[in-house]
Amino acid sequence: MPGVAIAAALVPPLSTVGITLVTGHYRESLGALLLFTTNLVAISLATALTFLMLGFRPAPTQKVRRQAQVRSVRVAFVLLLLVAGLLALTTYNLARESRMEARIFAVTEQKLREVVDAELAAVDVMSFENGRLQLEVTARSTHDIPFNRVRALQEAIGIQLKEEGILEEVALTLTVIRVTELDPLVPPTPTPVPSPTPTVTPGPSPTASAVPTLTPTVTATAVPTVTPLPTASPTSQPTMTPLPTETAVPPTPTPETAVVVYPYGLNFRAVPGMDGEILGRLEEGTVVVLLAGRETADNHIWQEIMVNGQIGWVASEFLEIRP
């Protein structure tokens, strides 16, 4: 069993060193060589300590063997310190690369939402060497994303990461998945309607009665003669003519306007906030009318505006008020 454990710890990394050297993956071969050296030093030290603890050591009279043992222990500790230093350096580089990748993902998601108004689905770092980053981004969107928007997204990601000292240039491949968003719907609860139940009420039974027969009698009646009375003629009354009343017309105030200064276009939302429904996109240079509404949401100050008769909200920091 010890032999099997040693073989499982030493043979696979050493085989990986040979395979990666042949295929030209020198960075991976260095990692496998570090793993092999770490396992070899650890196994050797563990074996030496086990023999010492069990009492297998040179006798006091065997000075030459004792000197060889001391030299072996010194060499083993030097190798142990060297391996520990290499492992610490490798761990630091891995943690640094992990932080850089996490920052790349966060910046990509933020710029994807701000520039092209899409949701991030996946990000793959294809290569990252000598300050050049190759990204493959998959996004979900309710609309098509034109080429100029993709270029603007690439520039925005590159500028942000370059300012943070992460890279020098970025290459971008964007895959868009078209989706359809529906508002939440609560199904109506059926309300039972009672059915009317017919009720039979017994009534009195009809009784046959004798009806007397009437015999009509003709009686002569005198009709008086109507004499017409004279008709009164209507007399015309004078008509009062109302005088015109002067009505004061207040002056119409001149609306205050502003212009959109965001180069990538500004989202026009129904309510203030990043979660508000997007009514449209205002390109740079669009003139809007400022209304009285002004609120703070999602770390932005939102201004109520009117464009082409439609009222909505935009982030005020991307507006420039015209005199």
What does this protein look like?
The chain is built from four helices and ten strands; from the N terminus they run αααββαββββββββ. It is α+β, with helices and mostly antiparallel strands and 323 residues long. The chain folds into three domains: 2-92, no CATH class; 97-178, GMP Synthetase, Chain A, domain 3, CATH 3.30.300.20; 257-321, SH3 type barrels, CATH 2.30.30.40. α4 (147-163) links the parallel β2 (132-141) and β3 (169-178). The longest helix has 53 residues, at 63-115. The chain is elongated, with a radius of gyration of 47 Å. The two termini are 87 Å apart. 11% of the residues are buried.
- Strand content bin: 15-25%
SS field, number of helical segments: 4
Computed over alpha carbons, the radius of gyration is 47 Å
Order of helices and strands: HHHEEHEEEEEEEE
Query: What general form does the structure show?
Result: elongated
Alpha-carbon distance between the termini? 87 Å
Average of per-residue pLDDT values: 79
Class by alpha and beta content:
alpha+beta
DSSP E strands, number: 10
Spatial strand sequence of the major β-sheet: 9-8-7-4-10
